[in-house]
Amino acid sequence: MTKYIKNVNAYLSQMKIKQTYISLKTGINQKKLSRILTGAQDITSIDMEKIASALGQKVEFFLSDSFQIPVIDEYGPEKIAFYAGNPTKKQEELAQKLVKFVENIDEILSADYRFLNISEE
After folding, report:
1. Which SUPFAM superfamilies match (predicted)?
2. With 70 as the cut, is the pLDDT of residue 93 above it?
């Protein structure tokens, strides 16, 4: 098994990322991905790029002699949904909108209830 595959597997394990997620993000068939990650099938440079990109990293990150996996605890609650990589500005904005929506869900639901009651009168 290559250094790249060992490091990717360690990263997936530490970060609790499922192969299904990688398959969906990369378009690599799940069975093929499984064979690649177990070392049963050689990995191409294209697949290396796809996997690294899906994890929010560059190929060199997984080939580095000083490879270190970030500790999940380093990420605050606002980042946990994006632990597979750094969020884009657009993702950050969407996440903030979702947080505000969830924080105000009681007000939204009570307003809905009030409008429904008005329409029944």
Report:
1. lambda repressor-like DNA-binding domains
2. yes
Q: What is the pLDDT of residue 82?
A: 47
Confidence of residue 117 (pLDDT cuts 50, 70, 90): low
- Band of pLDDT at residue 104, cut at 50, 70 and 90: confident
3-state secondary structure of 3: helix
Domain range for 8 is: 3-74
**67 and 100 housed in the same domain:** no
Pick from 42, 37, 3: which is nearest to 20 by CA?
37
Whichever domain contains 46, its CATH number is: 1.10.260.40
pTM recorded for the entire structure: 0.60
Contact 47, 36 (CB under 8 A): yes
Name the more confident of 79 and 18.
18
What is the 3-class SS of 50-109, one letter each residue? HHHHHCCCCHHHHHCCCCCCCCHHHCCCCCHHHCCCCCCHHHHHHHHHHHHHHHCHHHHH
